[in-house]
Amino acid sequence: MKVVEVSLGERSYPIHIGSGILGGLQERLLQEATGSKLLLLSNPTVYSIYGPVVERAIEGASLQRSLVLIPDGEQYKDYFWAYHILTRMLQDGLDRGSLLIALGGGVIGDIGGFVASVFMRGIAYVQVPTTLLAQVDSSVGGKTGVNHPLGKNMIGTFYQPRFVWIDVQTLRTLPEDQFRAGMAEVIKYGVIWDREFFQYLRSNHRQILGLQPESLEQVVQRCCQIKAEVVSRDEREAGLRAILNFGHTVGHAIETATSYRGYLHGEAVAVGMVAEAWLAHRLGLLSETEAGEIEETIRSYGLPVGIPKEIEVSRMLSYMTLDKKARAGRLRIVLPEGIGRVRVQEITEEGLLEETLRALQRV
Ligand code: NAD
Ligand code: GLY
Questions:
Q1: Which of 152, 220, 266, 356 is within CB 3.0–4.6 Å of 184 for a Cys-Cys bond?
Q2: Which of the 8 DSSP states describes residue 15?
Q3: CA-to-CA distance for 29 and 99, rounded, in angstroms?
């Protein structure tokens, strides 16, 4: 088993990564639990596959568990479900010493972390992420939250888990499009931080897409190391943490222009990274070869690299401008200056951005 430490003073915690380690959760729970009660939060899809193993671990740790399954889908990551979970916790007599386990993808992890952060002013929680996106991104770093009709992730907290338990074998049952979408975030880490890792992803895509356990462990470990490093330097996104948004400015505009239907988040980020890489090239920050390598790598993982004709570029631009208004009138985008290095750049020439997006409609 590999262990990555997130260093945040007294809020530091380990991320455990391995293949087939889900049952081993029992021992770790025994060390962590201070009370006798625990809430297991999941959804029916994940619980039907991994519930039994996790239930045995909880039973082995002699913890009295309550179970809440929320329906499967982003639309249930909302305040009403958070309230429902809190109600069940009160009804079942959970207290300050109780523990919460979030078993599932980013939706379960985000709402679980949020509930743990507000129940009795905060109880301990554990992330057991089962999607690639959750294993490399959402379960690490302590951003929790729920959506509001007026905006995604608009209600939330920064609240770190006690530990993260990642079994890469759970990725075997993940739908292929979800796995590929998670790969977009994986490639992102290579571009923003680690050229060598980016090359590893280029040379090992057959092993990775074939879900070879050692490659998956290596990939998840490196992503967690990078995220841990960024978060420990800038927990609350005062500066550096923003680099994790590479690909997300254009990606978010695509998601908004398609009303969050038709694109998985990672797929929109994939197109966003291609667009932002070519924008960096047009601005003279990135060589044509490197922008091409980024596009090529994204394509090799079966991710989209072009913008469909049906999406109006003018609409995308106006969404980005709206975003800009929300941030003191300046459009700032994370752009690569080379593979493994990014900067946050203020965009003054919006014409170049428009040209870049239009060029991607011909891909
Ligand atoms: P998700 O949680 O909806 O999971 C995707 C689908 O896969 C769901 O249908 C789920 O039931 C299913 N699933 C999960 N694990 C499975 C498995 N092992 N086998 C079979 N099916 C499985 O989506 P996601 O992509 O994991 O997460 C998206 C969410 O994460 C969004 O709400 C986003 O806002 C959030 N997010 C948060 C952060 C953060 O820092 N907190 C970062 C990125 C994304
Ligand atoms: N997903 C971006 C962050 O955790 O900051």
A1: 266
A2: E
A3: 9
Specify the pLDDT at position 235: 97
Does 185 contact ligand 2 (Cβ within 6 A)?
no
Task: State how far the Cα of 165 lies from the Cα of 1, in Å rounded to an integer.
Answer: 10
CA 172 to chain centre: 18
Q: Is 37 known to be catalytic?
A: no
Annotated catalytic residue: which of 252, 267, 276, 281? 252
Per-residue pLDDT tens digits for 88-144: 999 999 999 999 999 999 999 999 999 999 999 999 999 999 999 999 999 999 999
180 among known catalytic residues: no
* Domains in the chain, CATH or no CATH each: 2-173 (3.40.50.1970), 194-360 (1.20.1090.10)
In sequence order, which ranges of the chain are alpha helices (DSSP H)? 25-32, 44-60, 79-91, 106-118, 132-133, 176-193, 195-203, 205-209, 213-233, 248-257, 265-282, 288-300, 313-326, 350-360
* Alpha carbon of 142 to ligand 2 centroid (Å): 9
* Distance of CA 334 from the midpoint of ligand 1 (Å): 24
Q: What tens digit of pLDDT does each residue of 141-189 get? A: 999 999 999 889 999 999 999 999 999 999 999 999 999 999 999 999 9
Is 205 one of the annotated active-site residues of the chain?
no
What residues flank ligand 1, with Cβ below 6 Å? Answer: 43, 45-46, 49, 72, 74, 77, 104-108, 110, 130-131, 133-134, 137-138, 141, 143, 153, 170, 173-174, 178
pLDDT digits (tens, 9 = 90+) for 238-247: 999 999 999 9
- pLDDT of amino acid 326: 67
Reported as a single tens digit per residue, the pLDDT across 28-46 is 999 988 888 999 999 999 9
Handedness of CA 72, 75, 77, 83 (dihedral sign): negative
The beta strand positions in 90-150, using DSSP E, are 99-104, 124-129, 143-148
Write the CB contacts of 286 (distance below 8 Å, at least 6 apart in sequence).
277, 280, 335, 336, 337, 338
Cα 128 to ligand 1 centre (Å): 12
Pairing of strands 163-167, 124-129: parallel
* Interval between CA 343 and ligand 1 midpoint (Å): 28
